[in-house]
Amino acid sequence: MPPHHLQNYVQNPEEPASRRRLLVIGGKLLVTALTLGLLYRSVFADAATAAAWRQLLASTLSGSGRGPVLLALALVPVNWGLEAWKWWRLARHLEPVSFRRCFRAVLVGLTLGFVTPNRVGDYAGRIMELKSRRLDALGAVFLGRYCQLVATVVAGTVGLLYFLLTFYLRGYPATNVGLVVATILLNAGVILPLYRSRLLLSALTVVKPLRRFRRFLAVMPTYPAHALHVILALSMLRYGIFCAQFGLLLWAYGASPPIGPGLAAIAGTFLLKSLVPSLNALADVGVRELSATHLFGLLREPVLPVLSASLSLWVLNIALPSAAGLLFVLRLKVFRKKDRAARAPQP
Q: What angle do CA 13, 16, 18 make, to 5 degrees?
């Protein structure tokens, strides 16, 4: 065989790896451009968010709201640190992984989720940081997000129940009792699939269009009950951090609702936001603001402080960490084993 044939035989396996690297670089640049573009559009180009951002800075620099704003800002790394801890507890069930890598995966997922519909990029960001069992990791990510949803639903339904009973259904005792029972049953129905995930898998088998998702969630029953307790507790603790930040920002901007009704309004706002699908993180802003202004309006709170607090909460917890996650996206290793195999000597 002529020598140049042997040379072609050695170089051909390198070509797909080179093309993949170019695609990865292009994808990273695209994510970076989209993230920066959405950040500019949401934080600076949008008039309402820009006004809230300026008010946030003014409150921080002045004496009136400096303490609450700085405390809310200090809770941002605590918030995402709890999420990283939660993902570490889930991911180590699949493979040995460090907390540092899980924290990086959470930030990468946050950045990718910022520019994808319904934040599906969050799945990709966390999965790509794992070295193996990436298919099972889909179920692990879903389990973590479902635990967070449980905390949101349980607190949010109680919050909305308060508003229904207080402002809309006065003088209807039978209806009130029915709503309380319905709330209890709804929360029980939400918690049940968490601890009886085999029932969820069986339901996916029965519904034909959903059968394809069964293999992605098959890892859920392998998590023991004590692990689920920890994940759910971390989710509830993280939910409490969100509520505390919202309350601190309301305080910084001059809103002062009663503690109980104020917490009900915050919980109802988070629930209504979670129930509405979004094209990207920017689309969440309008849903949250509409819900917050309506619920706090029932408590006779002025619109501007509520709007500013809600927008600032989004800036602190989504916009700033998404920008920080870009540093890790640019260093992300999308292909691991395939690239090493392509560079290995051929027999």
A: 105
DSSP three-state, residue 102: helix
pLDDT reported for residue 11: 45
Give Cβ neighbours of residue 45 (< 8 Å, ≥ 6 apart).
Answer: none
Q: How far is the C-alpha of 77 from the C-alpha of 100, rounded, in Å?
A: 13
- CA 49, 55, 59: angle at the middle one, nearest 5? 145
CA distance 96 to 87: 12
In this prediction the pTM is: 0.81
Contacts of 118 (CB under 8 A, 6+ apart): 277, 278
CA quadruple 122, 138, 213, 189: dihedral, nearest 10:
-80
Q: Which amino acid makes up residue 236?
A: M
Which residue type occupies 334?
Answer: V
Per domain, the residue ranges of the chain are: 18-61+73-343
Assign 4 to helix, strand or coil.
helix
The rounded distance, in Å, linking the Cα atoms of 92 and 107 is 18
Higher pLDDT, 84 or 5: 84
Query: Phi and psi at residue 42, in whole multiples of 5°?
Result: -85, -35
**8 Å CB contact between 91 and 102:** yes
Percent of the chain whose predicted confidence (pLDDT) is above 70:
74
| pLDDT tens column, 130-170 | 888 888 899 999 999 999 999 999 999 999 999 999 999 98
Reply yes or no on whether the pLDDT at 339 is more than 70.
no
Tokens 């508003």 belong to residue: 163
DSSP 285-326: HHHHHHHHHHHHHHTT--HHHHHHHHHHHHIIIIIHHHHHHH
Closest by CA to 56, choosing from 252, 306, 251, 246, is: 252
- Comparing 47 with 318, the larger pLDDT belongs to 318
